[in-house]
Design brief:
This protein has 97 residues and is mostly beta strands. It has one domain: Immunoglobulin-like, CATH 2.60.40.3230. Strand 4 and strand 5 form a beta hairpin. The termini are far apart. 27% of the residues are buried.
Amino acid sequence: MSAAAQTSYNGTLARDIDVSYGVGGQNSVTGSMLNKSDRSVDVTVSFKGYASDGSVIQGDPSATIAHLSPGESARFRAAGFSEMATTAKLIEVRTVP
């Protein structure tokens, strides 16, 4: 049985960032984020990956977008899993205004 990851929100505007993602090719997570706040922020998102048997995969892929303006969206690719993940979970959204 594998542990379920829960998203941690760090920063006063972290919950105002909308993140969509999926498992990408080449041991990565791809997605987009949208700043729904009224201020520009630096945003970092971090992920945990799981193999088809439910075990956690080594690696800590994350992506950082600097100066994401209000209403602005950005695409990202976060690589770093040691093998192909079948699922990924968002474990942290961090903002720095």
